[in-house]
């Protein structure tokens, strides 16, 4: 009989872990928020959800990102209904002028270094490549449906301890993909919410553009939605009130990197989005502690790491023999 594994959290990290573990284990996901929920207290439905590799990454983190990209790339080709789609990315930076430290050059198809004449004012480096972007409002329910078909159980519960999760999941091994919840669940004081504010704009514009360095600005098409997400900002604020002046600032920055593609946008007609990324000052935590496998702290890179973290979680689960006592 297959061993049981419990997963705390139904965000993209928890769903990915369950997806990778489900062929071999009886998996139960225990979570306060489930795919289809649209509350502001969890991050996954509101994420930009684009595979834009994290430049500053260890070798192990690069490997996790690579595995995640490969999963989404295959999914985009096999099942467009998942909300995963292939796009050309234009990546701008103003904090470096060459691509000597870009580790993902061999990973992403059609990679090229843009000429200086192609760059907007103030931009010192431009890269183009082919990547994927996900529509979370489609992908999360798609994953839930696939997981249920694989026998994964979903239990809605806000748990306060690992023992609670064990009792619900009837499992000794628990995957802690609780995001911001790890602050209380584990007592990890380095964990906290990182506020993001974006806008959904109805448009035919379908280019994927990112700007990093002295600012963080992006345009991310949403597959099958008829629009794009524009942003962004990272903030320590913990309220959900829309910052009105920030909307104008985002629009100004987006127009600068898109040659004015959004100059006619009426800010009163956009859909405002405020969400909280699961941050951790010490970065991603993927490690085993007894019968707990921790997988949290991804901040705004959940979709970039998700299925790579899931593979690492599986390796940690299988690194020790265990038998359920329940």
From TrEMBL:
Protein name (Swiss-Prot/TrEMBL): Putative D-amino acid oxidase
Cofactor(s), names only, from the UniProt record: FAD
InterPro entries, A to Z: DAO (IPR023209), FAD-dep_OxRdtase (IPR006076)
Highest taxon, organism lineage: Eukaryota
Similarity annotation: Belongs to the DAMOX/DASOX family.
Domain FAD dependent oxidoreductase residues, every copy: 5-316
SUPFAM superfamilies, sorted: FAD-linked reductases, C-terminal domain, Nucleotide-binding domain
Gene Ontology molecular function: D-amino-acid oxidase activity; FAD binding
Species per Swiss-Prot/TrEMBL record: Mollisia scopiformis
Cellular-component GO terms for this entry: cytoplasm
Pfam families: DAO (PF01266)
Keywords: FAD, Flavoprotein, Oxidoreductase
Single GO BP term: D-amino acid catabolic process
